[in-house]
Structure formats: C-alpha cells, structure tokens
Amino acid sequence: MAMHGNPSQIEPMELPVDGNPRMGPIHRSPYAEAEASDPRMVSPFDVFSAAAEKFPNKRMLGRRETVNGEPGEYKWKTFEELFNTVLKVGNAIRGCGIKEEGRCGIYGANSPEWFISMQACNAHRICAVPLYHTLGAEAVQSIIRDSKVALALVEEKNIPELLRTLPATKSYLRTIASFGKVTSQQKEEAVKFRVVLYSWDKFLSLGKDKHFDLPVRKETDISSIVYTSGTTGDAKGVMISNKGIVISIAGLKRTLESVNQPLTEQDVYLSSYPLAHISGRVFAEVLVSSGASVGFPHGGVASLVEDIAELKPTILHAGPWELYIIYSGLQQKIALEGIIIRVIFGLAYPFKLANLYPYDFILCDLHLVKQGLGGNVRLIICEGAPLASNVAKFLRVVLHSDVLQTYGLTETCGSIFVSTPDKLKMPGTVGSLVPNVDVCLKSVPEMGYDALSSTPHGEVCIRGDTLFLAYLNREDLTRKAFDDGWFQTGDIGECQADGSLKIIGQKKNIFKLPEQGYVAPEYLECIYGADPYIDLIWVYGNSFESFLVAVINPNKQAVEKWAEQAGISRDFDALCENPKVKEYFLGELAKIAKEKKLEGFEFIKAVHLDPVPFDIE
C-alpha cells in the first residue's frame, strides 16, 4: 500500500496497530514500493554480478598507491577484473574447507579486499561475520567464539590482535589469511595453536587449480551476522538474510531516485563509513549496483579531507564525527584566506543561506570552499547520530550539496529513514521512510510519551522485509525485541507536522532527575550542538544528581577569536581551562535553552571543555 505525491508527507492510517492502545498509527513511505529489478536477484552476489555484466570495463574499486612512503594517485580495478578476483577468492575460501553456510570473519578497515571477501562469501552461501577493527582482541575473540568463525580474512596490521585471541578461539578458528604479507614469526605463532596463516598471494593460490560450482542461493540464507556495539551489555549477533540486504538496496535506490538524486555510473564514492556496519556495506552495494566507482581512504579520519581532495568524489557517506572534521577543515581554510576573501565570505554566506532555494544560482557555489573537497560533491549522507543543523546548513550552502540525514539500525539492515533534500527545515529530523518498511510509535506512559497525542511521541517500532531474522544464540532476546511482530528499536521518536520523524532520545539513555522530569540527552545534544562555538557536545546526568553537565569540543577558531576580543591571550588548550571561557559557554547554552523553551532541568549547569576531538569509538 504505497503512497505517492509530496515526498515530505507521510499519511498515516486512521486506526491504531491491531487495536493495541499503546500503538500509534502506521506510517508508510511516500515513495512507491521497490522490488529487485529482476526476480533472479535473490542475494547480494546476484546484484554484484549483474553490475559486473552491465559495466565490465568501468572502474569499480580504487585505492591510493604509495610513492616513496607518501600516498599518491588513486589506482583502479574494473568491474570485470574484480568479478574474476571474487571468483578466485571464493575458490580459495572453499579450498580451505569452508562449506556452504559456514562462517568467515572479515577483520579490518575498509579496503578493496574487504569488499571482495564479502562478495566471495555471498557467492558461495558462506556467512560473512564482520570483526570490527576498532574493538580490540577481547571483543574479536568473543565474536569468533559466538559465531564459530572458522576462517578469518584480516588486514595485515591486525594480525597481532587476531593472534592474541588464539588461546580462546583455536577450537573454531583454523585458518587466517592476511590481506597483505605475513612474517615467519607470525606463522610460527599461529602453528602453535594448529592454525594456518597465509599471505594474500599464497591464499589466492589455494583455489588456483580448483573449481567450485556456485551454489543455488536462497533469499532466506543468512548473508551476514553483524554484531551490535554492545553498549547495553554483550554484543548481539544480528542475523541478516539475503532478502533483507537485496530489499534494502532496492529501497534506498528508489528513495534517492524519488528525491531527484539518482545514482549513476558517473558517481564517485568515498567509502569511509565502515563496511563492518551494515549501513556502510549496503550503501556501498547500492553504489556498485549503479555502476559507480568506489574509492577507499588511505588512512584514518585525520586523512579524510586529503583523500577527498584527491579522489574528488560526488558522494560522501559519513558519520557526524567525520562531517564535523570536514566542517572544521573548511572553516580553517576560510580563516587562512586573506581579509578580502573572509569579508566576502562573511557577507555571501548568510545571503545565500537565506535565499538558498529560490535563488540557488547566486554566488556560484562559493567556489573557494567547494574546491576544498575536490569540487564535485553533490550528495552527503549522514549516518548515525544526528548532525547539528548548523553544520548541515553550512555544508549545504558552501558545497551546493544536498545533506541527507538517515536513520536505521543493524536490525533494520541499515537506513530506513532518509531526509528530503529540498527541505531546509528537515535538518534535525531523519526525514521520511524508505519503501518496503512500516513504522509506528509505541506509547511509553511511564516516561510521559503518548503515541496518540496531537504531537505523537513514543518508541519507534518497525516491521518489513528488511528486518533481521533473529539474534544468534539468543532466542530470549529475539522474543523480547518484538511486540506483535513489530521490532522495538529502543529509540524515542517524535512525528513532525510535515510527516518526518525526529529522534529525540533512546529509551535506555533516558533518565529522571530527582523530583524533576525525564531527560533525553541525545535530543538536548542536537539542540545545544547547533551553537557555532560547539563542534561536538555530550550531555550527561543521572538519577542521583539534580542537574545536567556537558563535555564540549569547542570550535577552535571561534573560541580563539572570542578570546582575542575579550583580551585573553592564551593557547587553545589553556583557553579550554579558563573559567571565563567556561562561563561564556554556560551563558550561550542558557540562551539556547531559553530560545528553545526547554524545561529548567534541561539547562546545562556545568561544562568541561575538551580541546581533543572525540574519536570514532
């Protein structure tokens, strides 16, 4: 029952869900339902192989070559070349004794080998298990044991971490293949536990004289077991089907087409959002299915702006922490320009912001700043936590790029809400539903959230074909996660008048201050984070303290400029410790709270200013 028309409107059904008095109306996507373009597309490998057949000579995956120890230009492999490599890797995996429905771990940062390994698993009905490269040996050990991983394909620098797990994982893990080289000492260490360790070239040779027919894939097959972060206990293995991924790919493509942002073979994508997260994987597969080129960063977040300048991508998919780094980098670029350029920018920016949509031709995209990201970016997709609206608007104005906030979970197979690009008022929301998914809000009366009120609030509940199958080895948690077939996300949402959804907090993170109301810290972080003096903010409180506090990453340029005007001459680290600077921030936070008509207990009463940016973890 799909709907059409204004993409920012979602018309709910009239009756509560199944007569449940705690459930609000069902909402569905304003876009037509999206199915796979071919009924034979039952697995992600089918989507990939169709793209390889359609775009054989088009460049597909690229990485920067190293010249004299420094990153150089991007070098590319074509769709056809990579399809053949996937078949070789698949034969090597099978040559190690991994059978259909076996478990293969993939451990490392985004790289061509990561994507190739995933597709090789898809081809042979082998379940891919991402091993998060940021988690360390203990978490990797837990995942290998829980999912019974027999083969691990691993980034070269992560081999020492993986070897440290062997005393506890040797009963399951029998083979390790490095994406690069291995040392004789590492091989000896593995042999102690009867584990075979191969270099990448040696591993590929295992399938050289062997041929394994590709099996018949089913949409009910488990494509991947993706572990949640475990922030509320041990990480849970989320079992995701072939059908869930294929439908997610189709739904995202349909959504982008419906908002006049179709993906094409001319697109270039920087794959910085982790492939180990289901959203990063699905979005990369959406790009590949459209014939786009996917480039990989050569280093961590610190090199992100440099990689973007070299790759010149048209599409970025990033977490808010990466976009804050890009935002700060562009601000620094402006600050380093001469006085004339800074004055022109200061006059041009607010004018273009005020006239963005009626007069989009004005000021020629603020060319100076746009070139800082290669000059070609047309679409930025923000995944994860909410992006501060001032950052979203800045990037939209100076880059002439649509900035889309998305929302999804591992259990929903990635993004199920995407904001509409032609609506400036949508920053702060996660936009509208993608096709093939239903959503409703569930009242949480003990916290004062009513899904049937004039402004509906409640826990976001989801159903549809993209939902996960179950939690691995945790039938109890699987049953607990569902209510009459609806997956309960644990996130608290608020329906907006235009039909979009705003995430205002998490059920597990909401707390009550003594003798006061409930606090949703994520919601407050969105509000306070709009201050241009703030790059990132973390709001904290608990049920034993009477007020809220915050840790803030201040904007370096803004703070130093204010300090200069205030007659305070110190370096940035010292300014963050200065009581006068802290007092200024508290005053600014109080102004925001009053403007937004927050309750008294939602005011921030103390701050810690941290000059070191929050890291990804």
Q: What does this molecule look like?
A:
The protein is of the alpha/beta class and 617 residues long. The protein contains 20 helices and 28 strands. The strands form six sheets. Strands 3-2-12-11-13-14-15-16-17 form a nine-stranded mixed beta sheet, with helices on both faces. Strands 1, 18, 19, 21, 22 and 23 form a six-stranded antiparallel beta sheet that branches. The chain has a five-stranded parallel beta sheet with strand order 5-4-6-7-8, with helices on both faces. Pathway: Phytoalexin biosynthesis; 3,4',5-trihydroxystilbene biosynthesis; 3,4',5-trihydroxystilbene from trans-4-coumarate: step 1/2. Residues 49-472 form the AMP-dependent synthetase/ligase domain.
Question: Key terms for this structure?
Answer:
phenylpropanoid metabolism; single chain; 33% helix; 617 residues; GMP Synthetase, Chain A, domain 3; 3 domains; disordered N terminus; AMP-dep_synth/lig_dom; six-stranded antiparallel sheet; Rossmann fold; alpha/beta; Long-chain acyl-CoA synthetases (AMP-forming)
In short:
With 617 residues, the chain is an alpha/beta fold.
Biggest sheet descriptor: 9 strands, mixed
Ends distance: 40 Å
Give the low-confidence spans. 1-16, 357-365
Portion in beta strands: 15-25%
The gyration radius over C-alpha positions equals 25 Å
**Portion of residues in helices?**
25-40%
Structural class: alpha/beta
Number of helices: 20
Which CATH first-tier class of the largest domain would you pick? Answer: Alpha Beta
Strand order of the largest sheet: 3-2-12-11-13-14-15-16-17
Q: What is the mean predicted local confidence, pLDDT? A: 84
Number of domains: 3
From the 3D structure, determine the CATH topology of the largest domain: Rossmann fold
Shape: globular
Q: Quaternary arrangement of the chains shown?
A: single chain
What is the CATH H-level superfamily of the largest domain?
A: ANL, N-terminal domain
